[in-house]
Design brief:
InterPro entries: CRAL-TRIO_dom, CRAL-TRIO_dom_sf, CRAL/TRIO_N_dom, CRAL/TRIO_N_dom_sf, PI/PC_transfer. The chain has about 450 residues and is α/β, with parallel strands linked by helices. Among the domains are: about 80 residues, no CATH class; about 150 residues, Phosphatidylinositol Transfer Protein Sec14p (3-Layer(aba) Sandwich). The protein is built from 15 helices and eleven strands. The chain has a five-stranded mixed β-sheet. Strands 3-2-1-4 form a four-stranded antiparallel β-sheet. Helix 6 packs across helix 9. The longest helix has 27 residues. The two termini are about 40 Å apart.
């Protein structure tokens, strides 16, 4: 991670340190840092992970070795770059773990487009299953070797008693997140299933069925986080205004646990019904979202105040919802954030780097090139003005009866599990009660509830 630590009161400012823990401690390999001297009295009070807003949308990879000259801000001939006002020279042998999306197609040839190889036992899709962009390891663009790895992963998980979420699209996402290393993908999947079964004491699916975020309108006054329509490629657009965070006010309205539980529910609703509805409307498979992260008003002090929350949600998104980032626009980015990311970006996977756009206050033209004006809230340069406010509308194809269908999580107990009782080992409890009947398939009766202003 890149942590921001305070300098002395005489120096003022802050330093960026990689690989360190939040308290600044590091092992022998993690001595690299970058110092920004801003003058006396302009430091930070405690460590901050400045890339936290990105980290929650990108899987963690590495380690990566950053050349000393690059971090010193020097050109190849040794002259100091004006990029940073003053940089520490204490970063020989710098090792770091950077935000990085594992894209298998960067090391493998892209296979010709073809129909997804469906498993008759697990794959029951009523929407397109071919990704629009030819990238190796993505649905419709897999190699025979990758297809075999999907089968291998599924077989290993079946042998250990797993019965849910073994469809091909899900397994491909976990394999891509681990560069098609079957053992690593298996561990990631198992950790995810354990978390899903235990989360909040009732499991993720029961939570999303029953969670009532009645304080949503009040929370959004101090921390807007919402989905709103689609980008030009048909993806759901997710907007988060980190600069509006007021933890004191939020503490009187809700708790951090409920905020995180709401985020988990929104992740689930993005996976189903939002993405399937968008796929049906677009005519091709959509598995990712377009994120707009507004940092207007974010300073070091505010970033520090939400560190715990960002750390928690980052872990959830990285570990349990892999391969969900399509595009990300970080707008109104402060100078410190832009400066650090300009260094980090050089060492990111090119495909990941192309997904992330860190923009200042003049972001409108680039953002409008991705999100149609009629779909972008007026506050961000678009023309959309929803009747009860864009942030509470949840407007999108997922509300259109032509495209939406009942989400799978709406089915109680094990209705969406596959019977593997003929396999060894056997984990089904023969004395378990029969699953409850599924809710009505009418989209109007689906448990996803329209937020009220």
């Amino acid at each position: 991670m890149w942590f921001c630590h305070p300098l002395s009161s005489q120096k003022g400012g802050f330093r960026f340190q990689t690989g360190a823990s939040p308290d600044g401690e590091a092992d022998a390999k993690d001595e690299g840092l970058i110092e920004f001297c801003l003058g006396p009295g302009r430091g930070v009070e405690r460590p901050v992970d400045l890339l936290g807003p990105l980290r929650r949308n990108i899987n963690v990879g590495g380690p990566w070795t950053l050349p000393r000259a690059s971090l010193l801000g020097q050109h190849s001939h040794g002259a100091r770059s004006p990029q940073f006002p003053r940089l520490s020279s204490r970063f020989a042998s710098l090792w770091t773990r950077l935000p990085h999306q594992h894209d298998a197609h960067n090391t493998m040839a892209t296979a010709p487009a073809h129909e997804l190889k469906l498993d008759p036992k697990y794959d029951d899709y009523d929407y397109p299953t071919t990704a629009p962009t030819p990238q190796s390891g993505h649905p419709g663009h897999t190699t025979p070797e990758q297809d075999a790895q999907v089968h291998q992963l599924r077989s290993l998980l079946e042998q250990e008693g797993h019965t849910k979420n073994l469809d091909t699209l899900t397994l491909l996402r976990f394999l891509r997140a681990r560069k098609f290393n079957v053992e690593l993908a298996k561990k990631m999947f198992q950790d995810c299933e354990k978390w899903r079964n235990e989360y909040a004491g009732i499991g993720v699916e029961e939570l999303v069925r029953t969670f009532d975020y009645k304080e949503r309108p009040q929370v959004f006054e101090y921390y807007p986080q919402y989905y709103h329509k689609t980008d030009k490629d048909g993806r759901p657009v997710y907007i988060e205004q980190l600069g509006k965070v007021d933890l004191t006010a939020l503490g009187k309205i809700t708790s951090q646990d409920r905020m995180i539980q709401n985020l988990v529910c929104e992740y689930e609703k993005m996976a189903d019904p939002r993405l399937p509805a968008c796929s049906r409307k677009s005519g091709y498979l959509l598995e990712t979202s377009c994120t707009i992260m507004d940092l207007k008003g974010v300073g070091i002090a505010k970033a520090t105040s939400v560190y715990g929350y960002l750390q928690a949600v980052s872990a959830i998104s990285q570990n349990y919802y892999p391969e969900r980032l399509g595009k990300m626009y970080v707008i109104n980015a402060p100078w410190g954030f832009s400066g650090v990311f300009s260094v980090v970006k050089k060492f990111l996977d090119p495909v990941t780097s192309a997904k992330i756009h860190v923009l200042g206050s003049g972001y409108q033209a680039e953002l409008l090139a991705q999100v149609p004006a009629e779909n972008l809230p007026k506050a961000f340069g678009g023309s959309c003005e929803c009747e009860k406010g864009c942030q509470l509308s949840d407007a999108g194809p997922w509300w259109d009866p032509q495209w939406v269908k009942e989400p799978k999580w709406a089915k109680k107990n094990d209705d969406n599990a596959i019977d593997n009782t003929g396999m060894t080992p056997q984990i089904q409890d023969a004395g378990a009660p029969a699953p409850a009947a599924p809710v009505a398939a009418d989209p109007a009766q689906a448990p996803i509830t329209q937020p009220q202003a």
